[in-house]
């Protein structure tokens, strides 16, 4: 009986650590995003080409620039118009998708726990 109580205690502590980690990560992410957010420059999308090379879509004012970014270089590949892009709706910054997927994982884990 004592080992079952110890196991339950460890599981509860583990769940608390997960919850604290989740909210701390979200808070730090929002804090960093708020500090780096500008009105005229915004990174819209990025894709990794290799370990140190990325292609990025950046909005600068009303222009949409396609950049190749590496460790030592940033190269303008071209410009795009808003009509050619598939942008998220205003106010949807992608965080909701991460939160939704985490919520789905959490619900799946909860459903596997024995119900009393």
Annotate the secondary structure layout:
Layout: H1 2-36, E1 41-50, E2 53-60, E3 63-69, E4 74-80, H2 95-112
Cα(first) to Cα(last) distance is 17 Å
Mean pLDDT: 81
Number of helices: 2
- Rounded to the nearest angstrom, the radius of gyration is 21 Å
What's the shape? Answer: elongated
Give unreliable regions as ranges.
91-96
Q: What does the largest sheet look like?
A: 4 strands, antiparallel
What's the number of extended β-strand segments? 4
What fraction strand?
Answer: 25-35%
**N to C succession of SSEs:** HEEEEH
* Helix content bin: 40-55%
**Spatial order of the strands forming the largest sheet:** 1-2-3-4
Structural class category:
alpha+beta
Can you give a write-up of this model?
The protein has helices spanning 2-36, 95-112, and strands at 41-50, 53-60, 63-69, 74-80. It contains 2 helices and 4 strands, in the order αββββα. It has a 4-stranded antiparallel β-sheet, with no helix packed on it. Among the domains are: 1-37; 40-81. The longest helix has 35 residues, at 2-36. The chain starts with a helix and ends with a helix. It is elongated and about 65 Å long. β1 (41-50) and β2 form a beta hairpin. It is of the alpha+beta class and 116 residues long.
